[in-house]
């Protein structure tokens, strides 16, 4: 939690964006969502589709989301906000078909200082990946497919 420099009281972090979308994600939108005049540090994590996984060539992937995934993303982001030193948090995740190089997820945190921003951003992406029901169906270079992240 940040402290209001004017009053000295604790200020709870704000979740300014938490959504799952089928359309391409905007890093600029996420960056704008966490900007705050009290913050000197903003960190972003941008996850993109890579051309390999565990030694296998990947040609594309599809993200499938559970019907509760959007609600769970909002909950997870709020939990991280409550326990972090951030002022603002934001998270966007793709669903549907993605090609190599497409942006799959963007999370950001802003805080008065960089240490709190880095810690909150890391906590947010790690918690999102562990707790939000989004599953990856990878299309491999040899024509095979595999599911990643199933419970």
Summarize the structure.
The protein has 151 residues and is an alpha+beta fold. It has three helices and eleven strands.
Descriptive report:
This protein is α+β, with helices and mostly antiparallel strands. The protein has a single domain, classed as Alpha-Beta Complex (Aldehyde Oxidoreductase, domain 3). About 25% of the residues lie in helices and about 40% in strands. The chain has 3 helices and 11 strands. Strands 5, 6, 8, 10 and 11 form a 5-stranded antiparallel beta sheet that branches. Strands 3-7-9-4 form a 4-stranded mixed beta sheet, with helices on both faces. It has a two-stranded antiparallel ribbon with strand order 1-2. The radius of gyration is 17 Å and the shape is elongated. The protein starts with a strand and ends with a strand. The relative contact order is 0.26.
What attributes does this structure have?
151 residues; alpha+beta; Aldehyde Oxidoreductase, domain 3; five-stranded antiparallel sheet; four-stranded mixed sheet; elongated
Main β sheet profile: 5 strands, antiparallel
How many helices does DSSP assign?
A: 3
What's the order of the H and E elements?
Answer: EEEHEEEHEEEHEE
Instruction: Give me the CATH superfamily.
Output: Molybdopterin biosynthesis MoaE subunit
Rg measurement, Å = 17 Å
Find the count of extended strands (DSSP E, 2+ residues): 11
State mean pLDDT (0 to 100 scale): 92
CATH architecture: Alpha-Beta Complex
Return the CATH topology: Aldehyde Oxidoreductase, domain 3
Global geometry = elongated
- Please indicate the count of domains: 1
Which CATH first-tier class would you pick?
Alpha Beta
Secondary-structure-derived class: alpha+beta
């Amino acid at each position: 939690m940040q402290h209001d420099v004017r009053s000295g009281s604790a200020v709870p972090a704000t979740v300014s964006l938490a959504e799952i979308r089928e359309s391409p994600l905007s890093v600029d939108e996420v960056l704008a969502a966490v900007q705050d005049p009290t913050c000197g540090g903003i960190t972003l994590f941008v996850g993109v589709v890579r051309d390999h996984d565990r030694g296998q060539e990947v040609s594309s992937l599809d993200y499938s989301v559970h019907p509760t995934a959007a609600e769970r993303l909002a909950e997870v982001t709020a939990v991280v906000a409550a326990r972090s030193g951030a002022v603002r948090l934001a998270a966007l995740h793709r669903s549907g078909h993605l090609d190599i190089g497409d942006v799959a997820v963007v999370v950001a945190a802003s805080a008065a200082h960089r240490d709190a921003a880095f810690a909150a951003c890391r906590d947010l992406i790690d918690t999102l990946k562990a707790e939000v029901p989004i599953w990856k169906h990878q299309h491999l270079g040899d024509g095979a497919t595999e599911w990643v992240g199933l419970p």
